Amino acid sequence: MENQNLGQTLPPAKPSFKEAFLFWLKLGFISFGGPAGQIGIMHQYVVEQKRWVSESRFLHALNYCMLLPGPEAQQLAAYLGWLLHGVRGALTAGILFVLPSVFILLALSSVYVTYGTIPWVAALFYGLKPAVVAIVLVALFKVGSKSLKSWFHYLVAALSFTCIFFYQVPFPLIILCTILVAFLLMKVHPSLLESKATPAEALANEQGYYLNAQSQVHQADSGLRIPIVRLVITLVLWSIPLGLFYLLTSKFAFWQTLIIFFSKAALVTFGGAYAVLPYVAQVTVEQLGWLTKYEMIDGLALGETTPGPLIMVLAFVGFMAGYHEYGGSLAMGALGLLTTTFYTFLPCFLFILAGAPLIERTRDNAHVKGVLGVVTAAVVGVILNLTVYFGKAVWFPKETSLAGLDYFTLAWTLISFIAMFRFKVGMMLWISISALAGLGYYLVTGGA
Fold it and tell me: For the residues 349-376, what does the mean pLDDT come to?
């Protein structure tokens, strides 16, 4: 037993780039279940199975990726890739995390606009919509149970919901004000931001990992030169497609609006897709008219059926924007999807490649962790708003009154919530069941 314990504490050798590449490729195809499922897969493989990174190092990377705008799971993959293999590791992990879902969503979007008006196809999405509302509800409960740790966090969540639901305050402004309030409280009342306790497991058994709390990473102690160089490279990459659209298209104003909007959305996506979708829906549906709110809900359903980050729903919005702008052109829809994907994820790589060396120097900064907690509480209020937004559209498709209530979608939302939250039915399995339920309802009622 003594030898066995000793063997368990021996750190593994540095993983080869090929070994890591194969894992990131596999992850890109199996990363269903939203950020919680994706992070769980990475934790199981990177921490528990391969022991490449210790628990405390993994949690540190996760906490700061949650603080950054953008999809936390994709950024976590890029961060872990950077820890293991530097820049090429970050690029490989981050790109492979997204790439499979890009092509899958492109195919599904093309099928959706081509066959979506066929009754039986529409029936499938009719069953998916209430399941999507339930998925958002499950996310609300999970995020809320972990992040609302005191009366102050509940207050922040309530104020966040009130601002965005009743007063239509833009989501980025809510996050900005939350951060400012958190920094102010850090000066005048820091006890409100303090974490109660760090789990002992986070610091236990640091000796049995390739990277642990004491490990130093290449470029972690670098100054500002590397981040500045990478910022300049990012700006050059950002400008190249914009210049090509200016030179090669007759509808430059449309592409300019699309690029600027999704670049802005990428910079304010604190809390992941569930948090930013109300902001995206508010602008693209109500102001720009790129798609309808029902198409937005269908896009979220499509996003849930593909691997990768749920923020890929934005790529669906880009597809619909190009498709409608060019009179039903699948090619322009595909270009819109690819352009949106590029500008949605470009900042993610900047935040990791330019920020990770600096972030590594602040691993024990309790103040930043406190600010993160307040931001997460605000995100809970935003997710509640998203739940109400989607719920109204699904349960009251014609009018917001008892006469306009769709009893099937309301009942299936409750059934879906109980199945996924109480009985832990897998999200992919339940999405399939929900689609078949919608088809079955259509066949039984004859489309009435």
Answer: 79
